[in-house]
Amino acid sequence: MAIEWDAAGTITRVIPGAVPGGEPVAAGPVLPGMANVHSHAFQRAMAGLAEFRGHPTDDFWTWREEMYRLVTRLDPDDVEAIARHLYIEMLRHGYTAVAEFHYLHHDRDGKPYDDRAEMANRIIAAAGNSGIALTLLPVLYAHGGFGHRPLSPAQKRFASDPAFVMSLVEEITTFNLPDPMLRLGVAPHSVRAVDALLLTEMVEAANRFDATMPVHMHVSEQSGEVAECIETHGATPLDWIRDLVAVDARWCLIHATHLTQLEARSLDGSGAVAGLCPMTEANLGDGIFEFVPWFEERKPWAIGGDSHVSVSPFEELRALEYSQRLRHRARNIVADEAAPDVAANLWLGASAGGAQALSQPMGAIETGKRADLVVLDGTDVDFAGLAAAQAFGVAMFSGNANRVRDVYVGGTVVVREGHHPNEAPAAASFRNALEKLRAGP
Fold first, then answer.
1. pLDDT tens, 40-59?
2. Is 239 a catalytic residue?
3. Domain 33-357 CATH (choose: 3.20.20.140, 1.20.140.160, 3.20.20.70, 3.30.720.120)
4. Distance (Å, whole) CA 97 – CA 108
C-alpha cells in the first residue's frame, strides 16, 4: 500500500497494492495514530507512588488525597516539564494526539496568575515542543462536592466559573490559533463539581463561541458518586446531565464506568463517545465498564491515560480486553463474526472514537485525514514469519516491549527508530522537577 500526503500533512492518496518505486518504505506494519482522550499531565509525577495501603478501604477517594498533596507543590515550570516528558513518552508508544483535561488554573494559594492562562500556556508549550497534537479542555470546577460544598484548600487551585473558562478559551484563541495541531474545548468537571446553572451556562457559552467545540465530562466514575448523585438530585449522573443539556456527538463521557444498560441504550443515536481509561480505572479499583453491548452496537468509544500509570495505548487496550474476559469468562471479547480480529478492532475503534472526541482530523489511514501514522518495528524477533495482522496481535498481547519504531504527526517524523529528538533534555527537566517535588516542604 502507498500512502501519500501533501505539505500540510493531509493524506491525499491511499493506493492498495502499490509497489513503491524509490519511495521511502515503512520498517513494519503501519497503524493510524492513537488519540489519548483524557489526560491529567501533572499526575505523571505521582504514578506508582500511591501503592502503599493507608486505609482499610483504599479507593479513589483516598488516592485523591495523595494527588492533592502533589497539587499543593506544583509550579508552572514543574507542570511544563512533566507534561513535555509525558507527551514525548506518549508519542514513543503510539499516541499522536492528547486531550488535556486542564483544571490546574491558579497558583498555590488559589490566586489567579497575572496571566490567567499561565498554566494553560505551559501545557500548549509542552505539546508544541514534543510535536503531539493537543485538544486543550479548560475545566469548570466550582464545588468541592454535592450540595455546593466549598472547595478544599488544594481544590482552590481549580476554582473556575463559565466566564473564567471562556476567558481562557478566548485568550488562547487570540494568541495561538489558527494552529493545525491545536483544538479547544471545554470540560465541566463532574456532577459533584458543578451545579445545574453552571452546567447550562457553560454549555451555552461554548455553543455561542463554537458550536463544534468538544465537551468532556467525568460521568459515573465511582459507585459512591452515583449513589450520592441519586441521593442529592434524585437521578443518576447521566440522567441529571441530560435533563439539563443536550448530549450529542461533541460529548465525551469520561469513564462512564457505572452506566446502567438502560442509560447506555438511551444514548443510542446521540453519537456521544465513551472515554474509557482502563489502566487508571483498574489502578483505582473503580470498576469495569460493560463494554460488550457498546461494541456490538458500534457506539463510539476511545481510550485515555488519565493518571498516566501507563503511557501506552497497547496497555490500555489490552487492559480493556482482559477486563471484559474476566467479566464474561470468555476469550476474544472485542470481536464478532463480521470483525474477528481483536487487536484491529481495539486499535481502529479507539483511534476513530478518539479522533471524534478530540475533534482532530485523524483516526484512520484514508484520504482527507491527517497523516498521523505509527510504524511498528518489523525487525522485532517476535514478528518473525508473521503477516502484518498477526504481528499486530503479538504487539498488542505479548509482553511489555514497546514495538513502536517510527511515529508521524501530520506527516512529520516525531519519533525515529524509537527515539524523540527532545527526549534527553525533556527527561533532564522532568528529573529536576521530580527531585524538587520529592524533596519535602
1. 999 999 988 877 877 777 77
2. no
3. 3.20.20.140
4. 29
